Amino acid sequence: MGSSTVRPVFVITGTSGEGKSTLARELSTRVAELELAVSATTRPRRPKEEDGRDYYFLGDKEFDRKLEAGDFLEWVELPWGEGYRSGTLWSELDRIASEGRSPLLEIETGGALRVRDRVPAAVTIFVTAPSSDELERRLRSRATESEGEIEERLDAAQSQLALEPEFKYKIVNDNLDRALGELEGIVRAELQAAGTMPAHDPSPH
């Protein structure tokens, strides 16, 4: 049965600005069995971002073509900005699985719900700030957004918070090291339960 084990697909989601991308990056360096999936997006590339490393940067027409072909596991229109879209390609999950790892997705709540519904092995984890005040402080401390975009993100965060009960786990990012430790514990337990991470050196039967 070992070779037919279905690898879990880990999904980190939550409110905007609470550090889920940092948690996902750090987690992927701590747990060798994981690889962070690269999302495809239509938003403009920011300084220092690389195509294929940070995102797959697609034009609107290319994004539409892939949608029509059924190439996306999930996609969302980003809840801020000018109608930019972002999504996860099935081919990215296949690439990671072919390397013997479990995919780790860090995506918006709407996309996370689609993965939950379409991938039986999905493990969903919702990350949020300790309070609404702290969430607003973190959003305003980000220099990449205008005041208008910050307000849009705050509105979106309230909608995202309402979805929290839909996900299997919840982590409050009150302290990065503590939250990361909790997240790592969840992931290792799920990998072990799925049979993809042995609790000890497996002996031949």
Overview of the molecule:
The chain has 205 residues and is α/β, with parallel strands linked by helices. The chain is 40% helix and 20% strand. The chain is built from seven helices and nine strands, in the order βαβββαββαβαβααβα. It has helices at 20-30, 60-68, 90-98, 109-118, 132-140, 147-161, 176-194; strands at residues 9-14, 34-36, 40-41, 56-57, 72-77, 85-89, 102-106, 122-128, 169-172. It has a five-stranded parallel beta sheet with strand order 2-7-1-8-9, sandwiched between helices. The chain has a four-stranded mixed beta sheet with strand order 4-3-6-5. The longest helix has 19 residues, at 176-194. It is globular. The N and C termini lie close together (12 Å). The model is unreliable at 199-205 (pLDDT under 50).
